[in-house]
Amino acid sequence: MTPDREEAPDSPQWTGWPDDDARRYRDAGFWAGATFGDLLRDWAVRHGERTALVDGDRRWTYRQLDHAADRIAGGLHRLGLRRGDRVIVQLPNRAEFVETWFGLQRLGAVPVHAMPGHRRAEIVHLAALSGAAGYVVADRHTGFDYRRLAHEVLDARRTADEPLRHVVVVGDPVDSGFTRYAELPTDPDGDHVDAGPSPGDLALLLLSGGTTGMPKLIPRTHDDYAYNARVGGEVCGLGPDDVYLAVLPIAFNFTLACPGVLGTLMAGGTVVVAPNPSPATAFRLIQRERVTFTALNPPLVPYWFSEYADSRPDLSSLRFVQVGSARLADDLARRFTPTLGVRLQQVYGMAEGLINYTRLDDPDDLVCTTQGRPGSPADEVRVVDPGDGRPVAAGEPGELLTRGPYTLRGYYRGDAAAAASFTADGFYRTGDLVRQLPSGHLNVVGRVKDQINRGGEKIAATEVEGHLLAHPAVRQAALVGVPDEQWGEAPVAVLVCTQPRPAAAELVAFLRGRGLATYKLPDRVEYVDAMPLTAVGKIDKKALAARLAPAAVTTGPDA
Question: Where in this chain does the record put each AMP-binding enzyme C-terminal domain (predicted)?
Answer without folding.
Answer: 463-538
